[in-house]
Amino acid sequence: MLWRKLLVPLTSLLLLLTASAGAGAAAAATGSPAGASAEAAAADYGAPGPYATAVEVGVVTTLYYPRDIATSDRRHPVIVWGNGTFAFPVVYRDLLLHWASQGFIVAAANTPQSNLGISMRAGIDLLTRRNADQGSPFHDRVDLEHIGASGHSQGGAAAIVVGADPRIDTILPIQPGPLADIDDVHVPALLLAGQKDSIVFPFLVKNFYNDADHIPAIYGELRGADHFTVVGDPGPFAAPTTAWFKAHLMGDQTARAQFFGADCGICTDSDTWSDVRRNGLANR
């Protein structure tokens, strides 16, 4: 397919450029700006969250998570991630660390061919074992009752595929490729497109939205975004993706108001969004 042929050289180049920035990521840490309260950082979904972060690179799965998880006073929800064609988690490092700073454990599949979702499901299995292992820093700190699936391009299609897994509570495909069937998904979906995406054209994402009449579904098209806006600094993708997962996996009502209700935040923000659509189930 044309979109795959175009994606290969561009993503490979970006992988090379981003890999140097991600060197030493196994010891990575970040946190809130100096003097910012945890509450303020959490409320600004595009800003770094209150948690310092760490990265563990494995064979099948790379984990991005709150660094002090072993001493955390809570269980942390999970996001499983799928990469675009010929890409690896390091390409999306900034976005995945951002989610970790907001309190999520991100299990990113270490595969450049994620469409079947096998490695994404393996991330859930890994965290299930770690949560049960008394010798693991993740012991009893993983909220396995609240799991979301996301990914970009081919990985966006994989998020839809994995959305059929009964362990998944919501999906957030970013510019998803076409090889998935959203009819198999039975959880709420936020489908993101880029207004200037010339690889996964917005109408392809709208096709998924139009087929998703059996679940609460929202289509959001980010103004000016192309297919690689989410790579490196995630820019306009950071805030809405974080808010969506906060709403569905953490019960954050402020985040929920960004998408639902008569005055939903994204519905009135024409500076950020070129098109927003909510189906009947989402409106209710």
From TrEMBL:
Is Signal one of the keywords? yes
Write down the InterPro entries for this protein, in alphabetical order. Answer: AB_hydrolase_fold, PET_hydrolase/cutinase-like
Going by the entry's taxonomy, the superkingdom of the source organism is recorded as: Bacteria
Signal sequence segment: 1-21
Q: Which UniProt keywords apply?
A: Signal
Does the UniProt entry include the keyword Membrane?
no
Q: Where is the PET hydrolase/cutinase-like domain?
A: 33-260
Per its record, how is this protein called by name? PET hydrolase/cutinase-like domain-containing protein
Taxonomic placement: Bacteria, Bacillati, Actinomycetota, Actinomycetes, Kitasatosporales
